[in-house]
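Below: protein 1.
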Amino acid sequence: MSDTGEAGHVRVSDVLALRSFQEAEWQLLTPRAALTSPVRWVHTIDDPRPAALLQGKEFVFSTLSRFTEDTEDLEEPLGIFLAELDSVPVSALAVEVLADRPRLREALHAVALERYSGGADPLPIVLFTEQVRFVDITEDVHQLLMARHLADESDRESADPLFEVSTQLIQEVLSGHLSSAEQVNQRAQPLGLAGAAEYRSLMLRLRTTARRGSAARLGPAGRTRTKHVTVNAVRTAASETHTRALVGQSSDSDIGIVLALDTREPYRSETDFCRALGRAVAKSRSSGVVPTFEVAAGEPSASMLRAITELDSAQQVLHSLERILPRAERFAGWGAAAAERGFWRAADLGVLGLLARVEDPGAINWFVSAQLGPLAGPDAEELRAVIRAVASPTQSKSEVAAHLGISRPTLYARLRRVERLIGHELTDEVIHTLHLALLTEDLHC
C-alpha cells in the first residue's frame, strides 16, 4: 500500500481532506498506514466478499451491514473481508459503525490492531462513529477526480477513472447485464447523476477521418487522442452550463452522454450544452487534433436506467445519419433545425431514417425500378420534380406551380402525363409511393 501514485492523481490524503470528510466524526484505526496511495474511484459496498466487485485503487465505503451483532465471531469474517480488499488491492476503507453496534466496533478495533502489529504496511481504515452521508463524500470525490483530470494538460493519455467507471455502467446496461433501476441509481450516485428531475441521453459519434471532408483516416494513436480531447470538451461544456453529465464509451466510435436536468426546459438545456460543446472543441483544436462528430438525442427519461437505454435510440439515429449525411445536398433544407440546435433527433430524419437502414440492394433496385421505371425519357427530370413538389401536404396547386416556376395549366399537363405513364390516377397514396421511391433512389442509387 505504499504506492505514491503520480503527480496530478487523487490520493487517500486528498479524500480525507475534503470538506464532507472533515465535517464528519471519524478516526483513523491504522495510524501507520500510508495515505499516499492513488484513488482511482470510490465504491460503496456491503458484500462480505467484495473482491470480485472491485477493480483496484478504489476508496471503499461500507456500513458493514452484513456483520450483525448476533454473529458469534465477528473478527474472523472481518479479517476475510479485509484480506479480500488487500487482494484487489484497494486504496482505503471507510466504515460507518454507530454506537448501537458495540461488538462490531470492538472487533474492528481488534482486527485493525492485529494488522498494525503484524508488521505489514496496512490498509488505511477509517471509522465513522456518527451517521454520515456517503453520497456527499462520493460526489465530492467525483468532482475532485474530474477537476484533477481536466487540469492535466500533458500530452500523454493519463488514466481516466471517471470515464472507465461510466463506460462500465453504460455498457452493462446496454448489454442487458444490468437491469435494476435501484442498482443503476446506486452506481450513478457517486457520479452525481442520481435523483434528477429529468434525464436526457446524447450519443456522440466521432468521425474516423482526420478532418471533415478529408480522405485521410485516423490511426489508433490519433483516434485515442481525439477521444481524449472530445471527452474533456464534453466535461468542459457540462461545467460551463452547470449540467451534471455521465460520459462513457458505448462503442469504438461512440461516446454516450447522460445529462441530469433540474430544469423544465430540457430541449433548451440540451441545446445550451451542445453549443457549449462546440465552443469547447473549437478551443481545443491544437496539436493537429480536430475532433469532428455528430450528436444525436434519445427521448426524455425520468430514470437513470431509462436514460442509459435511450442511448441506444440515439445510436439508431446516428446509424441512419451515416448514409444520409453524405447525400444531404439532395434534400433541400433538410437538417437545418438540427444544425441550429447542435444535435439530431429521430423526428429530424422523418422517413429517411428508416429508408437509410434498408440494406438489401436487390430489394432497393426492384422497388425503385418498379415505381420510377415508367418515368423515363427526356422529360423524366421535369416529371420527378412535379412528384416531389406535389408530395408536400402543405402546398396548394398554385404554390406548387409557383415553386416549380411554371403555370398552373402546365402543372396539370405534367400531372396528366405522369398518370398516363404509370397507368394510375395520382391519388395521395400513389403520390406518396412515388415520392418514397424517389427518396430511396436519392439515398441508395
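Below: protein 2.
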Amino acid sequence: MLHATPVWTPLQRLENDLLSSLTAPVRPDAGVLVVGLDEPSLAALNQAPPLPRRLHAQLVDALAAAGAAALGIDMLFAAPQSAADDAALAQALQGRMPVVLASAELAVQSSQVAQYRQTVLSIFADARHGSVALDVDDDGVVRRAPAQDDALWRVLAQSSGRAFTPPPPGALLRFYAPEVPLPYAHYTQALDPAGTLPPGSLKGRLVLLGQNTPVDGVDQFVTPLRELGGGPQSGVFMHATALMNGLTGAWIVPAHPAGPALQAVLAVGVAAGLTRRWRGWRAVWISLALAVLALLGGLWAHLMGVWWSALPTLAGLALHVNVGAADSYWRERRRREQLRNDFARYVPPAVVNALAAADTAPVLQGERRVLTLLFSDLAGFTAASEHLPPEAVAQTLNAYFSRMTHTVHIHGGTLDKFIGDAVMAFWNAPLPEPAHAERALACAQAMQTDMVALRAAWQGTPFANVQLRIGIHTGEAAVGHLGSHERFTYTAVGDAVNTAARLEGANKALGTGILLSGATCNALPADSAERAHLLWLDAVVLAGRSAGIDVYTLCDDAALVATSLALYGHLQAGAWALALQCCADWQTHARVRAPQWLAHAEQLRGRVQALADTERERVNTTASTTNSQSPGVVSAFRARALDKT
C-alpha cells in the first residue's frame, strides 16, 4: 500500500542515492579519457564559446595522430559558422579515426537539454551521430542509464569496435567514487598532445570531448553522489560514466519487485513469530536487527550490481512494530485496568498505581511469600448487638470498617477481608515491602487509637465498651487470587494466617490489646524504636500446636520491658535462680507501677518455680558426670506453657 503513496518514489530515490554513494567503486581504467573545454583552455586560447570549428578540426587531427581509438563530441553543431571553419571540421571528420557527433533530435523531458533540440547542419549529416539526451528525474537527478540505441556512448563504442554490454531494461548508472578522477585533459592539451601529455597517454583510448564550463547550470547534472557532497557534473562526464559502465558491464539492475516483496513478507513473518514470545523493547530490537540485515543485504546486492530495495522490508517491519506497539499499548492498558479492578478493594490507590506502573505484573495465581499478617476483632460486639436492629448494627460496622480500612491503607497494607466484625490484613504483597513488620505494628497502634475515637462516638450506645484485640504474626504464606472461575479474591492462606488469627484470640487470656509473635519481633530491626517497646509475655500454646510460641505486646514501661527481656535471657541460659529473681522483680514493679501485670507475673513465677524444681530433681537423679543443665530450657518452658487460645 505504501508504494501507492506520494512518499514511496522519493524514498526509493533516496535509498538508491545512498546506496550509490556508499557503494561507489574506484573508477576502473576502461581506456576512456575526457577532454574538457574548460576555463583554463578558454583563457589560454583567449576565446569564448562557441570556438571556431577549425580548432575542433585541429583537435580531431591531433587526437588521431596520437593514436586515439575514437572520439565522441558532446557539442551540437546546429548553427553555421564560416564556410572555411565548417569545411575544415567536415574534412577532419573524414579521417581514419571514428568521430561521433552529438545529436538531440529526440524529444527530451529535461529543461537542461532543451537547447539541444536541434538538427545537425547538413554539412555534417554524413558523420556518425549519437544522442546526448539524458534521462533526468523530476527531482533533477540523473540515475538511469541512457538506453537509446543511438546513445552517444553506444555509437562511440560501436565505432571503435570495442565490446560492450547494453544496459538491461530499467538499468541505473553506477557512479564512481570521486577520489580517483577520470583521466582528463584540457582542450589546449589535446590540441598539442605530443607537447603537453605523456607519451602514449591517448593511444587506444576512447575520447569524449565536451564543455566543462558551468555557466548558469547549462549542461550540468546532479548525480546520486550528492549524498556524499558531490556537486553537479558536466554532461560529458555523464556520457563517460555510461561508456565505462557499458565497457565493464557495471550497470545497476533493479531486482524484480516480487523479490523484495517476498523478503518483506518473510521478515515480517519472522518478526511476528519471535515477538509472540518477546514483547516490548525486545520486539523492537528484533525488528531493528532484521531491518539492519535487510539494509546490509541491499548494500551487498548493490555492490553485486543489483538494486534490491530494502524499503518493502523496512516498511513491513515498521508497520509490524507500530501494530505491535499499539497492541502492546492496549494489552498494557487492559492489564492495568484489570489490576485496578482486582486490587482497588484491597490496597490503597497509591499501591494500585504502583502495581499498574510496574514493569512486571504480580503473580496472581498464587506464590509463596513471607508476610506480616494482622487479625483484629471487636470483643463484646456480638453481645452488644443482640438487641439492636440490623440497620443499627450495619451502620456501626460500616463506620468501624471504613475507619479500619483507611488506617490499613495509609500504612501500606493489603486489606484481605472482613469476617463478621473481624478484619484481616497483610503486608509485603502484592508489592514487596521490606519494612512489613514495622508497618503492620504501626498500623495496629493506629487502629487502637482509632478505636478510642470510635468508642467516644458510640457513647450512649451498647458499643461504647467494645474493645479491639489485634494479633500479628510474620511467616510464609501462599498469596494470590484464590477461588472459582465465577468468583475469586486476592487473599493469603497457610499456617501463618492461622497463627495470626490465634494470636488475636490469645489477647483475651493475657489481657492485652495487641499481641505479636516472636517471628514478628525478630522481623523488626534490632535498633528500631518499636522493638525497644516490646514486652515479652509468655510462651503460648496455640490450637493445633504441641509447643508454645513466644508472644510480645507493646509497653511504654522501659523498666518492665528490660525485666522481661532479662527473664527471657535467663530462661534461655537455664539460670533458674536469676529467672526467679526477675519474676520477683516483675511482681515488685507491678505492685507499685503496673498492677495490670501483677497477676501475670505471679503466674510466670509459679511456672518458672515448677520447672526449676523439676530440673533440680532430674539433676539429682541423673548419674552423670556431664553438665547436668538442660540444653532445651526454653523449649521445655514452651512445652509447659499454658493454653492461652
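The mean pLDDT is 85.
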